Amino acid sequence: MKSSKPKSEDGLAKAVEASMRFGAKPFLGLSLVWLLTVGGGRAQEFQPSEYQLKAAFLFNFAKFVEWPPEAFAEARSPIVIGILGENPFGGDLERTIRNKTISNRSLAVKEIRSLAEATNCHLLFISTSEKQRLPEIIQGLRGASVLTVGETERFTEAGGMINFVLEGNKIRFRINDEAAKSAGLKISSKLLSLALRPVR
Predict the structure, then answer these.
(1) Distance of alpha carbon 118 from alpha carbon 83, whole angstroms
(2) Is 109:93 a contact under the CB 8 Å cutoff?
(3) Helix (H) or strand (E) holding 186
(4) Where does 67-185 show beta strands of DSSP type E?
(5) pTM
(6) Strand bridging mode 65-66 / 101-102
(7) Residue 96: what pLDDT?
């Protein structure tokens, strides 16, 4: 009997998706996320890095967000995931989304060099290298249907939409739903229920 062994990137994306689908908080340590997907034996062969996990989260964030029709040039236009600033993913994000679709749309990764380019993305990861420019970037994206994701401290308080938060080796996230709504984006209640409470 032929055994099917999922590729590591596919397994990571499925693990994150499973944690969201079944209501398990995605606050799992790196090794536990991998155990959810492939079991103990395979977990010893491959230990996902922080950015492999974050790449899987980005893919799954896109599954739980609805963009307005006008955000796409055509019915089959791809969902573009942009990276503004230094790219911490290496090739992990491209590998994670390869050959995957969301609502019959393919996905593409693009390194963004300017704010004008950023408005052509659907999901924009804003690197920590852009921390000093964050207010300018958020202001420049006002009115554009772009889901902004970052990992700098108080990212959502500055107007960003999803902020990765590391607690030890656990990846958690906060969501600024008001910022998303003002950009015409609808974030699924399932994803909202998994987010940390906003900072008061």
Answers:
(1) 9
(2) yes
(3) strand 186-187
(4) 79-84, 101-102, 105-112, 123-126, 147-150, 162-167, 170-175
(5) 0.81
(6) unpaired
(7) 95
Which of 117, 147, 112, 142 lies closest to 130, judged by CA?
112
Report the alpha-carbon distance of residue 127 to residue 75 in Å, rounded: 30
Choose among 124, 117, 159: nearest CA to 142: 159
Element (H, E) at 42: helix 40-43
Nearest to 148 by CA among 126, 172, 171: 126
* Domain 49-194 coded CATH 3.40.50.2300: yes
**Confidence (pLDDT) at 167:** 81
Helix (H) and strand (E) counts in the chain: 9, 9
Residue 157 has pLDDT above 60, yes or no: yes
